[in-house]
Amino acid sequence: MSKPRTNHVAATGPAYAHRITMGRHTLIADEPIALGGGDSGPAPFDLYLAALSSCTAITLQMYAERKGWDLGNFEADLTLTYTDDGRPSIHRTFYTSATLDDEQKQRLLDIAAKTPVTRVLEAGAIITSEHGVK
What we know:
The protein folds into two domains: 42 residues; 82 residues, GMP Synthetase, Chain A, domain 3 (2-Layer Sandwich), CATH 3.30.300. 32% of the residues lie in helices and 24% in strands. It is built from three helices and five strands. The protein is globular and about 55 Å long. The two termini are 29 Å apart.
C-alpha cells in the first residue's frame, strides 16, 4: 500500500475562501462571485480538473522521456460538462509542438487513459467522513 496523502483545509474568509495546505504547499480555493464567493482562488471543480490535467501532463512527459520522444511544448485543454442524465464528462485535448507520428499520438492517448488520477476518478473512491474535536 502506498503512503497516504493528506491535506488540511481551513476557512480564511471572506465568504467561501479556504486555505488548502499540502505539506509545504498552500493554495486558496473559493467560489466565483456569481455563487457568493470572492473569486480569490480556483473553485473546487477547477481544482478537480487541475488534478487530472497536471497528472496527465506529468505522466505523458515521463512516458515520452522514457521512450526518448521529444514532445516539444506540451499543453492540454480539459473541459468538464454534464450529460443529459447528469453524469460528469471530461474531454481532454493534447497539443505538442513537436511532430509525432500517428502511432506515437495513439500511444499517448492510451497512456493518458491510464494515468493514476484518471484511474481513481473512473473507479470512484471510497469517501468516508467523521466529526473530530480540536
